[in-house]
């Protein structure tokens, strides 16, 4: 799955911050899951940044 653009992420968070709708309605409107909306809002509140995080994990050598 590809990552969402920074502009798209900002639109979701801004719509939530306006407070005019619920997470499920936003998810339907932007065609994403409710968990995606929650995760983006949480990430923005904790870090103030919406840039995508790195995918995967580092493999540790044995």
TrEMBL record:
State a single Pfam family of this protein: HTH_28
| Ranges in coiled-coil conformation | none
Q: Which residues form the Insertion element IS150 protein InsJ-like helix-turn-helix domain?
A: 8-54
Q: Which InterPro entries match?
A: Homeodomain-like_sf (IPR009057), InsJ-like_HTH (IPR055247), WH-like_DNA-bd_sf (IPR036388)
The record's annotation in Gene3D superfamilies points to: Winged helix-like DNA-binding domain superfamily/Winged helix DNA-binding domain (1.10.10.10)
> What name is this protein filed under?
ISSoc4, transposase orfA
């Amino acid at each position: 799955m590809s990552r969402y653009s920074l502009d798209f992420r900002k639109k979701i968070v801004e719509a939530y911050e306006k407070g005019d709708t619920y997470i499920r309605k936003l998810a339907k409107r932007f065609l994403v899951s409710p968990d995606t909306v929650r995760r983006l809002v949480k990430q923005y509140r904790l870090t103030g940044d919406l840039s995508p995080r790195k995918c995967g994990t580092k493999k540790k050598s044995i």
